[in-house]
Amino acid sequence: MSTRRHSSGECIAMSGIIPAGIFERLEQEYAGMPVYRLGRFFLWNQVGELWVVSDGVGKSPYYAYNKAGDQQNPAKCRSFSYWRVYEDGRFHVRTQLVLTKFFTLQPPDKHPIPEVVVINGREGPNSIVNGGYSRVDQWMNGRPCYMEEDTKLWLFFDGQRWKVSRELGGGSFYARTDDRKAKSPIEVNEPWMVAESGGEVWPDIKVVARAFDPEEVLDSSVTNLEDGKFTDPDFPPADGSLGDMGFADCDWIRGQKLNPTAQKRVRLFHNIEEDNLLQGSLGDCWLLAAFSAVAEFPRAIENLFVTKEFSPDGVYQIRLYDVSCSRWQQMEIDDWIPCKKRKWWQVGGVPIFAKPSDNQLWCMLLEKTFAKFCGGYENLKGGHMPYALQCMTGEETQLKWKKEDPAGTLWSEWKVDLDWMRKNPRRFDKMFTRETGNTHTKHAFFNMIADFDEKNFIMGTSISGDVMEKKRTDGLIERHAYSLIRVFDAPELSIRLVKLRNPWGQPAGGGANWKGDWGPDSQMWKVYPQVKELLNFRAGVADGMFWMPFDDFTSIFDNVVVCPKSMPPAMGRRASSRALSSDVVELSASQAGKISDNFNSEKLKRECSIQ
Fold this sequence. Notes:
By secondary structure, this protein is α+β, with helices and mostly antiparallel strands. It contains 14 helices and 34 strands. The protein has four domains: 94 residues, no CATH class; 98 residues, no CATH class; 176 residues, no CATH class; 212 residues, Cathepsin B, Chain A. A hairpin with a 3-residue loop joins strand 4 and strand 5. The N terminus and C terminus are likely disordered.
């Protein structure tokens, strides 16, 4: 991809201030006026009012501006008004700033060395490698060198490989690639190897180096509201749709433009699974946990969408159940998604709230539908999972089981107050329950949730606490919603497990969700290889799902919510997975014997038995 994509050869030479140099005109215009670029700096027109120099088109702060914004040619502005330059905390008139317009007939190189290289796609540890690396005067081993101005990281060729490092020519690195033939980073054909938090280096196929293309940045920007696509007038891409959340300074980007450089095309649905989504900065774990639980049954998610396929026009019809009138309500939304404020080099965007794990749009659009339903994204904070399950399934009755003693030996049944819900169908932050008088011992409680799992009921769970989303030393989170997605019983070995999912996915900085027995890093998977095979357990998968012993679950977790509706049977891979792990799985005597060959079976039974 070339960084010179102007067709006319029109340029503006700027002198008298920094940045001084040649601004080249781009093919794409902004508000009907020409746009010019010099490296990371843009010269553009603010809707006929100002000519501006800044880090991005339509972006502030300004480095310089001229009030003669009605001039088509920025070089003529000085005849009508002086340029003002930002220095020492304010703008000063600078009479020495001069712009000159000229043309060049020299065609762009077919394979130029890019002036700016963008590295993007890294998530998790060492995502610091993402950035816009500007070319410097220095060369090393016959290759150009680049520096990221904000992070002060260097991108260079050490004679054997391209590296991202803290020091130019340094031996240590954050990322590297072993492609020796690449004359520049954008020609690399080998995967980038990224250092993980534990010091190990692994390939990350999502990391891509490409030439900076300002036209791509412009194309995905919210500034282009007049793009001919649908914008919801009742829930527009504006601060009012967010509420008072402290995210006013964000970028709204269409879902179809979130990742325009991805190899996979954007889709509404693609292999809906419970690990397809991650929670963002909004405190709506209750909602994302419900999404994850319902996503175990893909057909239930698809049935919420009246629009069944990706919409190029950005308009979607989605339905939610409204308990106040006991009817499904169809709602129309656009695909503008609130994203983190982008840096000058970024293409697409990173959603502030729900994040898909691939190029599926359904979870972000469904979250936006809930936000519109309750009057804004702010009103999704601190809600309760039964509301979301009711809205997505149409099942009005929602149950909650509460632990009655610290050891979890007795559980009582409660029903969500339906009368209050009917009067307040859009108040997700408060929930009232009524005790039914039914109680279960721990043993009976396990059999009950195993039966619920067999019936394809949807379940969620949480730990009580005084502080919202407080992380415990065992890796679990208090006052945070988890989806309860599997129940497993191996009577021959006295092993009872439950499988949960944290909507955060892999916690920041790495580490397991649950650090005890049968957690992601537990040795129990080595002790019981047949159980590992039965449950299709894979270590090192950062999807937020984990197993834990039922004993530990009942002593730690305090609440279990249940949507008592049999969901449509899961399909494909999920069906076989449920067949292995639902209700009761009997291990044969030969299997049990193989497991216990190297261990004392009586000792293991004592350790894993239900108390």
